[in-house]
Amino acid sequence: xxxxxxxxxxxxxxxxxxxxxxxxxxxxxxxxxxxxxxxxxxxxxxxxxxxxxxxxxxxxxxxxxxxxxxxxxxxxxxxxxxxxxxxxxxxxxxxxxxxxxxxxxxxxxxxxxxxxxxxxxxxxxxxxxxxxxxxxxxxxxxxxxxxxxxxxxxxxxxxxxxxxxxxxxxxxxxxxxxxxxxxxxxxxxxxxxxxxxxxxxxxxxxxxxxxxxxxxxxxxxxxxxxxxxxxxxxxxxxxxxxxxxxxxxxxxxxxxxxxxxxxxx
Length: 265
What we know:
The chain is mainly alpha-helical. It has helices at about 1-15, 35-55, 65-95, 110-125, 130-135, 145-165, 170-195, 205-230, 235-265.
């Protein structure tokens, strides 16, 4: 037990003492954990209590145009994020400098691009809170599951932690995978928002869960590999991210079993 506590404390100190780019602290929402905790807290209060109570005796909002525009923007934003992470990864792979983390952060354009892309990825997780808000306003309360709320809140918080404490190329793989999945996911929602006459094009709904599971499986393998090869990134948050990937695999597998497997019996 004492050894486990020492291991936890060691990883905690490793995260806090990691060399970070001070410019990140000057960016919106990044100075302290206060703003992101308030945002996540407000989100949870609204989706779990205030929102359902507010809509209890009101008719559902018709947000067809809003949903079409929102999902279209999310598709293009996800394409941009995926292309940015892929482009950065390719440039880093073929860079004559090797590991850019060996250079002073403030003096490398590459590092600044990595950090700014990571901030936009983090910001996108906050924007995605609107998914749940729209569910509630449209009285789709059955969509506001534990999996949905947990996924949105923990992803936003972990994205903040990663950018704040261990920014670098290690997060590019996760960002690329997640953004690619979101291109597919928001494309589905965009088509669904167009109306019932397009429903025939949505036969692939259940395969989105397969894609999500594949995403988390690859993420888990990648995170384990970063621990095995002993990357310089602090291991504390990597342990948490790997644990969270396992939780997601379980939750999405359970969702798939209940939503599709049970209907086949």
